[in-house]
Design a protein that fits this description.
Pfam families: ATPgrasp_ST (PF14397). The chain contains eleven helices and 14 strands. By secondary structure, the chain is α+β, with helices and mostly antiparallel strands. The strands form three sheets. Strands 12-11-10-9-8-13-14 form a seven-stranded antiparallel beta sheet. Strands 1-7-2-3 form a four-stranded antiparallel beta sheet.
Length: 332
């Protein structure tokens, strides 16, 4: 019987330590995240500039577009760049992000192979500035970054997109982690709601614990067919230290850190989230509450290295992917 069926009743959810939206908002976000600090993470440009101050690696900034007049100068900004990413500074859920993998003969190619003209790029940026993709529909800024060349060891676990790692950090302690793998269903984006595969990760080692797609167990990547049980995130220690250090950088007690592994620069910070979603519990097959309760009992002012070591010791888990069905499938 699937573990999902065992979580049907509210009492069983509580027994599993599942944190719901109300508890997350009131107990953790409301108590540990001062609202005056939200702009540091709600605006991707501010996050990037702050990370640079703290020596945290992020994708290189090509430039920004702040006005409709500036849209017409994008072609000059992009000269010499054979791949780039356009994103709204105040976007959420992956909306408005445009990835260009290569530029040839005046055309811009997305990872899917679809081609765009310069006019298409300008139209997208114009819509972005008007607030089409921003939180609350407010006017926005277009952030143009260099393309991430993700670690080749992860190539077989993703489809037409960059896999990213989400780590929930509470009071500076890495609490729970997952990797999001893009699929054809998610249109090459690492967004679980659009059909990306979420893989829970062992905080101790970075190894895969279990996989989920469309809220159902998943044992292999639906497009590449690669077995998820073999997934181990490289440079895991470095990645955890980067995530934990975002506590001092932002002052936020409860946050989600989204990172990628670049083949040249290693772990890089993509963005931060002051209201991280709760689907990470499903990918891990375990609730957050017991871990959060344990961390609340720890003293303040603990160094990053000790916080990471504490999390790795107390939150280690055994993988569920070793017991796969006889015929693995994406939605077994």
């Amino acid at each position: 019987m699937s573990w999902l069926k065992n979580w049907t009743w509210p009492t069983r959810l509580r027994d599993k330590g599942i944190v719901g939206m109300n508890r997350r908002n009131i107990r953790y976000i409301g108590r540990y995240n001062a609202r005056r600090l939200y702009p540091l993470v709600d605006d991707k440009l501010k996050t990037k500039l702050l990370a640079q101050q703290y020596g945290i690696t992020t994708p290189e900034l090509i430039g920004t577009v702040t006005t409709q007049f500036g849209v017409k100068h994008m072609s000059e900004m992009l000269i010499g760049h054979h791949g780039f990413v356009v994103k709204p500074a105040k976007g959420s859920g992956g909306k408005g992000i445009l990835v260009i993998e290569k530029v040839e003969n005046g055309l811009f190619y997305k990872p899917s192979g679809a081609s765009l003209t310069m006019e298409d790029i300008e139209r997208h940026v114009s819509n972005l500035l008007s607030g089409l993709y921003s939180l609350g529909g407010s006017p926005d800024v277009a952030v143009i970054e260099t393309l991430i060349n993700f670690d080749e060891s992860l190539l077989e676990y993703t489809y037409e997109g960059v896999p990213d790692i989400r780590v929930i950090v509470f009071k500076g302690y890495p609490v729970m982690a997952m990797m999001r793998l893009s699929t054809a269903a998610s249109d090459g984006k690492a967004n679980l709601h659009q059909g990306a595969v979420g893989v829970g990760l062992n905080i101790a080692t970075g190894a895969a614990l279990r996989g989920v797609q469309f809220d159902r167990p998943c044992y292999s990547h639906p497009d590449t067919g690669h077995d998820l049980a073999s997934l181990v995130v490289p440079q895991w220690e470095t990645l955890l230290h980067l995530a934990a250090g975002c506590y001092e950088m932002t002052g936020l007690g409860y946050l989600g850190t989204d990172m990628v592994l670049d083949r040249k620069h290693g772990p890089m910070l993509l963005e931060l989230n002051a209201r991280p979603g709760l689907a990470i519990q499903m990918t891990n097959g375990e609730g957050l509450r017991r871990r959060l309760d344990l961390i609340e009992r720890q003293p303040d002012n603990v160094p990053v290295a000790k916080r990471v070591a504490f999390a790795q010791h107390h939150f280690a888990r055994k993988s569920e992917l070793t017991d796969t069905p006889d015929t693995p499938s994406a939605t077994a």
